[in-house]
Design brief:
By secondary structure, the chain is an alpha+beta fold. The protein has 15 helices and 19 strands. Helix 1 crosses helix 6. One of its GO terms (molecular function) is peptide transmembrane transporter activity. This is ABC transporter substrate-binding protein. Keywords: Signal.
Length: 496
């Protein structure tokens, strides 16, 4: 049972405050700090890969407006110019004209060679950034300002792919070592100047930014995995912008300081189709039927979420109108089968979801063990298929603004994030068809057919669609509230 947040014992509040003591002192240059207020940001997850853009850390670089891509997406998910001024397609080849007048934070000039270097590094990385799952991509400099990008098969989504923060364009200095180091190597309005391991980072305004001078002198970031501590940072004025406030804390904060947005993020139970109890499709069906998602929404999320109808939620409003009933395998009897469910502590609600699912599945006849750790300590085991089931809060259009990349990554036979260990020809065929369909209504229909193929296998049970709760202190102006989690502090963001 949850202890109401307003009744948290004094020891809990003291512990949260201790986590923040000194965290948000200015970490940037004295010169930058002298010009207005620096923005203090409390982030949920610390860097996993030293802020390499080839990992999920890329989204931090994007949210701090330090690393940029050739293309950006508008609110509808359509491709718009960024470091590329324009582009055109000819079969498998796309030609991009590089924006003039852009410099990296080390003073070097953005040109075609720099673009080719970054894209080639990503395309040849092992593992590849997930936006390139199943994609053969080569980049070539045609002249100083023109780059051609060629794919193995005709790909209608190349511009959307190139908007992924994992395909950010960095200066040559970023690639000198064994890992990609983004410090001082971006093109955005803020320069990353200091990284203190997994505890903090600092960015200063880059006054030569091609898009105009940022309104804030810099950003001081602290990584605060503890949700109570992040909420305390907003309540006590220790932070200006707080990422991912837990549902349990939202009700006791000043409601004028929090923003709640439906996210393209689905809380999903992935079932291991390769081995263990859930290799049996009838037991996967039994698990699906045992789950009461509505009680999770009301009990764990206090109504601040939406019951899932499919893998794609209300943040993609077209999905519900295209969806038709899915034919499932008949549920079998668990007969006391033992299963282990894994999840992680970084998102405060997930351990509670795990505990609730344990009760629901045990009621249905399973014996259920839980394995709950920090994400950094459990991801490799999850990807290796060491659990019978895994609970994940999964962004469904994080990379390209198009759900095909997520569906391929998570459910294709060769997908890089295939927690279900699914290898099904019918699913692969529908995913391939969706990936080859031109953007628009036809593609959306193909996406829903691919979703139906996955759901028919019960490889994943979508439970609920989350809403992000972001905290902005009273003096914060124009912080981004981005459902795709790509933007947070922009050139227009400042603190009064």
């Amino acid at each position: 049972m949850r202890v109401p947040a307003r009744l948290l014992p004094l020891t809990a509040v003291t512990a949260a405050s201790a986590l923040l003591t000194g965290c948000f002192s200015s970490a940037g240059s004295d010169e930058a700090a002298a010009d207005g207020k620096r923005i203090r940001v409390a982030h949920m997850q610390p860097p996993r890969s030293g802020l390499s853009p080839l990992s999920d850390d890329a989204f931090k670089l994007s949210r701090w407006s330090t690393a940029e891509t050739l293309v950006k997406l508008d609110k509808e998910g359509d491709a718009q110019p960024a470091l590329a001024a324009k582009w055109q397609q000819a079969g498998r080849t796309w030609t991009f004209e590089i924006r003039d007048g852009v410099t990296f934070h080390d003073g070097t000039k953005l040109d075609a060679d720099a673009v080719v270097r970054s894209l080639t590094k990503a395309a040849t990385a092992s593992p590849k950034p997930r936006i390139l799952d199943g994609v053969e991509l080569t980049a070539k400099a045609e002249d100083a300002d023109t780059v051609t990008v060629t794919t193995g098969t005709e790909d209608p989504l190349v511009p959307q792919r190139l908007s992924s923060p994992q395909l950010a364009i960095l200066a040559a200095k970023a690639y000198k070592g064994k890992t990609v180091n983004p410090v001082g190597a971006g093109t955005g309005p803020f320069e990353l100047v200091k990284v203190n391991g997994t505890s903090s980072a600092a960015l200063d305004r880059y006054d030569a930014y091609w898009g105009g001078k940022a309104k804030a002198p810099g950003i001081d970031v602290t990584f605060v995995p503890d949700g109570t501590a992040r909420a305390a940072a907003l309540r006590t004025g220790e932070a200006d912008i707080v990422e991912a406030i837990p549902v349990s804390q939202a009700a006791v904060l000043d409601q004028d300081l929090i923003t709640e947005v439906p996210m393209p993020r689905t809380n999903t139970l992935y079932l291991n189709t390769e081995k263990g109890a859930f290799k049996d499709a009838s037991l996967r069906a039994a698990a699906r039927e045992a789950i009461d998602a509505e009680s999770l929404v009301e009990g764990v999320y206090e109504g601040r979420a939406d019951v899932a109808e499919g893998l794609l939620g209300p943040a993609l409003p077209w999905a519900a109108g295209l969806r038709t009933p899915v034919k499932h395998t008949k549920a079998g009897k668990p007969n006391g089968k033992t299963i282990t469910i894994g999840t992680f502590t970084d998102r405060a609600e997930l351990p509670e979801v795990a505990a609730a699912l344990q009760q629901q599945l045990q009621k249905a006849g399973f014996k259920v063990k839980l394995d709950v750790r920090e994400y950094a300590n459990i991801e490799s085991d999850a990807l290796a298929g060491k659990f019978d089931a895994f609970i994940l809060s999964r962004a469904t259009v994080l990379d390209s603004g198009d759900p095909v990349a997520y569906l391929y990554s998570d459910f294709a036979s060769d997908g890089s994030f295939n927690l279900s260990q699914l290898a099904d020809p019918s699913v692969d065929a529908e995913l391939k068809k969706a990936g080859e369909t031109q953007a628009g209504d036809a593609r959306r229909k193909a996406v829903i057919k691919a979703e139906a193929a996955v759901l028919a296998q019960d490889a994943a049970v979508p439970m609920l669609h989350e809403r992000v709760i972001q905290g902005d202190a009273a003096g914060v102006v124009d912080a981004a509230h981005d459902p795709r989690e790509r933007e947070l502090v922009t050139a227009d963001t400042y603190v009064k």
